[in-house]
TrEMBL record:
InterPro entries: AAA+_ATPase, ABC_transporter-like_ATP-bd, ABC_transporter-like_CS, ACT-like_dom_sf, MetN_ABC, MetN_ABC_transporter-like, NIL_domain, P-loop_NTPase
Ranges of residues in domain ABC transporter: 2-242
PROSITE patterns given in the database record: ABC_TRANSPORTER_1, ABC_TRANSPORTER_2
Record's keyword annotation contains Cell membrane: yes
Entry keyword set: Amino-acid transport, ATP-binding, Cell membrane, Membrane, Nucleotide-binding, Translocase, Transport
Record's protein name: ATP-binding cassette domain-containing protein
TM region positions: none
A UniProt-annotated Pfam family: NIL
GO terms for MF: ATP binding
Source organism of the structure: Parachitinimonas caeni
Length: 336
């Protein structure tokens, strides 16, 4: 468990104080994938860099598995950091070293393994990230996705119990992003490794994360399981980040609302009902005819979900009874 409490971090700019983190508290479960999302300048990089004290907060506490980082001596902190892997947006590989030598580097720094043990560990890591055939190449000879695989292998070298990913896929095209996200999901499953990532892209959160925190102007404005935050976003920043990725939670522009007769329903499907003809079934039962206004159908870590916004054209039962009727089919219905 990682417990972050009341973090505050300010920077000074030409005599002016800039608050980068303002009373940030988070609870990150062991073994899960926790995403931190926000717009540019929200404080994401500062927050992730505070988690291994690359950036030292002005105040607050960071407790990793029961150990308070802020009170560790410099040498104890160095030792602890070796078990916190970090993956960077621009890979940060050593250009003069081969793939294998880049992955070997943190093992050399730790100095705990023999040369033979290091070679064996490097081979194991390259197999894990699918780069065995590229071990003798230099970073300049690799694609962006391959470079990030090296970055991930290097971050895992000293068997970390926490992996921090700083916009790990932001420099990659969509297809390569998918393959890196799949690799991170695999590593999380196989090694039961806690992953904390920052991103500005809701698709990364949707594909990879179990929990998410939304940060805005240095504050956590919303946090919870990804499914809950996607289906019931509470904050305007969350809503707009979702809308930009086409995963908006059905809201109609006010000018349209006036032109649509009849009550509006928001129907939320999670899991099996998403794939069943529930609307047709309830339509027949309740004499319900609707005008479909907007819809989202997607998946969060393998769980299908959907959200429809519809206007009621006709219904043989009271509209107020529809939530109960939809609930029998496992669908949430809100009368808006
Ligand atoms: N080293 C620094 N010196 C001064 N100000 C800084 C420093 N690092 C960050 N800041 C300021 O702190 C605020 C948060 O920045 P941060 O880089 O954490 O945001 P971010 O969400 O990661 O943004 P981006 O997605 O653009 O990287 C910004 O206003 C930024 O200008």
């Amino acid at each position: 468990m990682i417990e972050v409490q009341s973090l505050r971090k300010t920077f000074s700019h030409g005599g002016r104080q800039q608050v980068a983190l303002d009373d940030v508290s988070l609870c990150i479960e062991e073994g899960g994938i926790f995403g931190i999302i926000g717009r540019s300048g929200a404080g994401k990089s500062t927050l992730i860099r505070c988690l291994n004290l690359l950036e030292r907060p002005d105040s607050g506490s960071i407790c990793l598995g029961g150990q308070e980082l802020m009170t560790l001596s410099e040498s104890a902190l160095q030792a602890r950091r070796q078990r916190i892997g970090m993956v960077f947006q621009h890979f940060n590989l050593l250009r003069s070293r081969t793939v294998a030598a880049n992955v070997r580097f943190p093992l050399e720094l730790a100095g705990t393994l023999s040369a033979q043990q290091m070679d064996a560990r490097v081979a194991e890591l390259l197999a894990l990230v699918g780069l065995t055939a590229h071990s003798g190449k230099y970073p300049a000879q690799l694609s962006g996705g391959q470079k990030q695989r090296v970055g991930i292998a290097r971050a895992l070298a000293n068997q970390p119990d926490l992996l921090l990913c700083d916009e790990a896929t932001s420099a990659l095209d969509p297809e390569t992003t998918d393959s890196i996200l799949a690799l991170l999901a695999d590593i999380n499953r196989q090694l039961r490794l806690t992953i904390v990532l920052i991103t500005h892209d809701m698709r990364v959160i949707r594909q990879l994360c179990d929990q998410v925190a939304v940060i805005d102007h240095g504050k956590v404005v919303e946090a919870g399981p990804v499914l809950d935050v996607f289906l019931q976003p509470q904050h305007s920043v969350t809503r707009s980040l979702l809308a930009e990725t086409g995963l908006g939670h059905g809201v109609l522009p006010a000018s349209w609302r006036e032109r649509i007769a009849g009550p509006l329903l928001r129907l939320t499907f999670v899991g099996e009902p998403t794939l069943e003809p529930v609307l047709d079934k309830v339509g027949r039962e309740a004499g319900l005819r609707v005008n479909l206004l907007s819809g989202t159908l997607s998946e969060i870590k393998g769980t299908p979900f959907g959200q429809l916004l519809v206007a009621v054209m006709a219904s043989t039962v009271e509209v107020a009874r529809l939530p109960e009727i939809f609930a029998r089919e496992g669908v949430r219905c809100e009368v808006l």
